[in-house]
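Researcher: Sit down with what I've pasted below and flag anything odd:
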Amino acid sequence: MGDLNDRLADFSLELHPDKTRLIEFGKFAMANRRARGNGVLRLSASSSSRTIAGPRGRDVSDWVASRSASAVNRTLKRIKAELCWRMHHDIHEVAKWRGRAVGGWLRYYAVPTSFRSLDRFVRRLKRIWLRALRQRSQKDRFTWNRVGILAAAFWPPLRILHPWPTTRFAVKTRGWSRMV
């Protein structure tokens, strides 16, 4: 914290003492807190704060992955409107179109620790598509399995595409400053 305060002072900035603290995170954060006898870590002092680490609480990876919830909702709302417009188009063409969008979403959001939120996004997208397909006709009996088969055929598989930050930000300079 002292080093950070010194660095910010170079730019005439300072940290708010009541709003700034160090938070341990990572694979063993919960176990380390339990071993030290610390309680549940909260984001803020309010009663509605989200648990970061603790027994039965959400861990750091859930918090990091859920930071894009508003982007997910906006995207799904736009996709739903587009699916209503493409309701009577060929199912395979719509599946290809959705596959390109899912691929773009994965290329942007598929960072380490976000697999659960990506899976949730794809399931919500399948559910929206299924509802749109079922609204095509009163007699339409489109099933969840059929949507899954189409998604598996035309959508890219869910996987983490970005490396961990320690790998991504590793800079090799051959002795020279990377700022030159």
User: Anything to note?
Assistant: The chain is about 50% helix and 5% strand. The two ends are 28 Å apart (CA to CA). The CA atoms of residues 170 and 176 lie 14 Å apart.
